[in-house]
Amino acid sequence: MLYQLSQWILESLSGSPLGEQLSFLRLFEYITFRCAGAAMTALFLSLWLGPKVILWLKNIRFDQQYSDRAEVGGDMSMRLIDKRGTPTMGGVLIVTVLDITGLLWAQWNALVLLTLLSIVVLAGLGFYDDYAKIAFKNSKGAHSYIKLTVQGILALFISVYLLKNPDTRTLITEIMVPFYKYPVITEVAGLGILLSSLTIVGSSNAVNLTDGLDGLAIGCTLIVTVTFIIFSYIAGNVIWAEHLMVPYVAGAGELTVVCSAMLGAGLGFLWFNCHPARMFMGDTGSLALGGALGIIAVLIHQPFVLVIAGGVFVMEAGSVMIQTGWFKYTRLRTGTGRRVFRMAPLHHHFEKLGWYESQVVTRFYILSIMFALAALSSLKLR
Q1: Averaged pLDDT of the chain
Q2: What ranges do the domains of the chain cover?
Q3: What three-state secondary structure class fits 185?
Q4: Backbone dihedral angles phi then psi of residue 23, each to the nearest 5 degrees
């Protein structure tokens, strides 16, 4: 919006003395300037609105009064009691600030609007899930098939839209992998749709599973977001894309502004979510942020880069799949279900080993940074 407004002012006053005085508005033509503006705007909005959102959530009793199924029992019961009453659905703050800031600073195009609209849809799904947990005072929430159905329909819509649009068709029909500069497979629309859908749905749920400790999910999300700020900027710049031999995607540069808005909104939320958390993002935030990362990865033609950069999310989701699969398999074969980890998702396993919550979060941050650096190395190692 600010870009369009600045261009309109400059064109209207072109050649006039006032137009010369307002020549600084040309700064809005630069993505780097708008990225900085988006990040700072989102950060300050989050810090300003945060206390108001916390008070509002408390007033309407949108707080956690139930035990998370993954956390029940053992030496963690006292920690659960201490956290009850903390406002949840803090993702409302993140998504609201992210969308407002993105619309304000980005140059609107199909990729930007598709991403911001999808974030709202996933936030709405997460809000429904959070509300169900609060209403019934348990951690069950919405049925998993409802969430997977909505996520699947959204992911399929995005994939088909990209396929039908001539400008973005190759994002689906060509499969790119890290550390290799050419598509490994071409003209595979069906496989591309499947891969894109799995990227979006998988990322959304993986971040959701990671959201179990104060600051864990949002901190790791911020690290991955910084990685995608770099990737989206390169993908949208024809010179840099050609130099680094990555797919050029017209208009993808504006996703850098969206990622910057996500960074600012996430940092502002982390101010209130760090231990001891004053509010939780809930599924409202985790499903939306995870989905956003998956969508951006698809839009810049780098879905497998997300697997590397989001290694912590992959570990968390993988631990749940392994734990559930092995438990069911051993129960079927022996009559008694057995576990691989002491508790899943993985962050609870380390808590059971005696790590403090702050230790788990900090060490997972370190792992996330290492995964992000590995992903960034794929830009040169080709």
Answers
A1: 90
A2: 2-307
A3: strand
A4: -65, -20
